[in-house]
Amino acid sequence: MVSICIIAKNEEENIERCLSSIGPYDFEIVVVDTGSTDRTKEIALQYTHCVFDYEWKDDFSDARNYAIEQATRDYIFMLDCDEYITSLDYEKLIDLLKTNSKDVGRISRINTFIRNGEQTRIKEPVNRIFNKHFFKYQGRIHEQIVKKDGSKYGTYNIPVVLEHTGYDGDVAFIKEKTERNIFLLLKDLEEIGEDPYILYQLGKSYYMQGDYIEACTYFSKALEYDLNPQAEFVIDLVETYGYALLNCQEYRQALQFENIYQEFGNRPEFKFLMGLIYMNNGEFNQAIKEFYKATKYDYADTQGINTYKAYYNIGVIYQCLGDKKNATMYYKKCGDYPMAKKMLDELER
Description:
Strand order of the largest sheet: 3-2-1-4-7-6-10-5
Distance between the termini: 64 Å
Number of helices: 15
CATH architecture of the largest domain: Alpha Horseshoe
């Protein structure tokens, strides 16, 4: 009933982990190689005979649609080599597909990466499973699933969890990956004109490179459009823009986020961001309030935002204010968080 489709190039370090995670389930596996010079195809052939060559055309949608054409089953589950399945309820998945053929299934993807020596885990929903008779991919890079007849469609959650390590790696790896993305996004922008989603993705690419000034430029352009504040990319656009402003030391400009609190302030991530904004503007009482509000959420998409990271920042503020007692109390709330333990050691000397 379901074909897993993968496009790959020089993924010998990732593809076996990806393919082995599919093994326990009754999926057809289709691998499309876009020009590997390593052992990617050799490894893929150990798991499936459906390995195809494709001439790369600087277009991820074209490659994905080619992979879909090779699949013999009706439903497509698109997977990337740097992802692997950690949880899947197969029977429930099949039942959901039978009753949602004209909508798109969303999986939960956990992005894991290390920045500045600290591991970050962010959970996000991603559209991934659909009936190939009704859907295809569109967009040269950061491609999206669209209805073939151009109509709108609904989504539903499916019981699948993936781990994704594609954002991890050294500076050179990240720069190479983002430079490729920027090149393709700029080509899209040139062909179809300004589009808020493409502008957002350009901003994200520059943000990942650490070019926060350029990231702010594209985020700001995207926000000039009339956007739906409930759209997931808009929420991420706003929050990442806030962090880009902080990294540019545009603290006063970041305070303008007070004006959108009513629209975006229903997430612990936004409250945590506002805590950082107030903190960097020297408004410590307001910062403490926002960090504390973040801890009132039982769940956050970003690991630690509603627990140890919020408590840690409250502790830092109290330490800066000379309140050793409260600083110690909040650092202790952080559990084994290394930065909090380091600050506690300093206070206890």
